[in-house]
Amino acid sequence: MQQFDLNLSSGVEQIELPVDDEHRKEGAIVKFQSDYLGPQQAIDFYNKLYKQVDWQKETLWIFGEERLVPRLVAWYGDPEAEYRYSGKLHKPLPWIRPLQDIKEQLEQTLGCCFNSVLCNLYRDGSDSMGWHADDERELGSNPVIASVSLGAKRAFHLKHKKNPKLRHKMSLTSGSLLVMQGATQKFWLHQVPKEPKITEARINLTFRKVIL
Ligand SMILES: O=C(O)CCC(=O)C(=O)O
Ligand SMILES: [Fe+2]
Q1: How many domains does the chain have?
Q2: In Å, what is the CA distance from 155 to each residue of 101, 129, 141, 194?
Q3: Would 182 be classed as within a structural domain?
Q4: Segment-wise mean pLDDT, segments of 10 residues, the chain, 212 residues
Q5: Where does the Fe2OG dioxygenase domain start and stop, copy by copy (predicted)?
Q6: Within a domain: residue 174?
Q7: Which ligand is nearest to the CA of 173?
Q8: Which DSSP state fits 1?
Q9: Residue 38 located in a structural domain
Q10: Cβ partners under 8 Å of residue 48, min gap 6
Q11: Residue of 117, 204, 207, 210 to mutate, ligand 1, most atoms within 8 A of C-beta
């Protein structure tokens, strides 16, 4: 089992979440580095991405009703990295410079490679992402998901799929990197809850490797 390490050892928090006996070896590991990007670098990327990403409204079918997802989204990647989420097949848009720059930096840091990124724009605290796991078949069984946050600080919650009393709360600050790996998606759900008091926007990028 390959484990990915953040090369920058300073200030990296590592959380090992409970799994079952069968998956003890791979573990469910979450790593967090609050200052992965410097403050100015984070602002520069935020401004470029806010302008350059082709932000889209997206709909989702819930109980036979088509609803708008409470955030804007965009999917970028290698041409063949198609990905199904929210019940729809997404063809990636071609890479733009700032996304490619962050991807390359992450690949160096983590020693693994990504072929796509889901971009989310939370316009303010009334935007959110509900409980889910990034456990789509296209990502393989133990995906490494690298999540970069820019802009407003937002809460990030983790909850065990079978034992909802097991929970973790984190605060994703601008410039931070969160890596979920091992069996995290198999055993745990995550969400970005609504925070009505927040008036600033946040961009989140989750880099993934779609298995072709
Ligand atoms: O915005 C975040 O921090 C989480 C995004 C996420 O979970 C996803 O894109 O699957
Ligand atoms: Fe997710």
Answers
A1: 1
A2: 26, 11, 26, 9
A3: yes
A4: 48 84 81 96 98 95 91 96 80 97 97 96 98 92 96 97 93 98 93 98 97 88
A5: 113-211
A6: yes
A7: 1
A8: -
A9: yes
A10: 97, 98
A11: 204
Q: Is residue 7 part of a domain?
A: no
What distance in Å separates the CA atoms of residue 117 and residue 207, rounded to the nearest whole number?
Answer: 4
Asked if residue 185 has its Cβ within 6 Å of ligand 1, the reply is no
**Structure confidence at residue 10 (pLDDT):** 61
With the CA atoms of 186, 188, 194 and 195 taken in that order, what torsion angle do they form, in degrees rounded to the nearest 10?
-140
Q: Hunting for tokens 């809850």 — which residue is that? A: 193
The reply to whether ligand 1 has any atom less than 6 angstroms from the CB of 192 is yes
**Global confidence as pTM:** 0.93
Give the domain range for residue 163. 12-208
> Could you tell me the CATH number of the domain that includes residue 134?
2.60.120.590
What's the complex ipTM?
0.99
Positive or negative, the CA dihedral 207, 205, 72, 49 is negative
- Segment 5-14 long-range contacts (CB within 8 Å, at least 24 positions apart): 5/110, 5/111, 6/31, 6/33, 6/109, 6/110, 6/177, 6/179, 7/108, 7/109, 7/110, 7/111, 8/33, 8/36, 8/109, 11/35
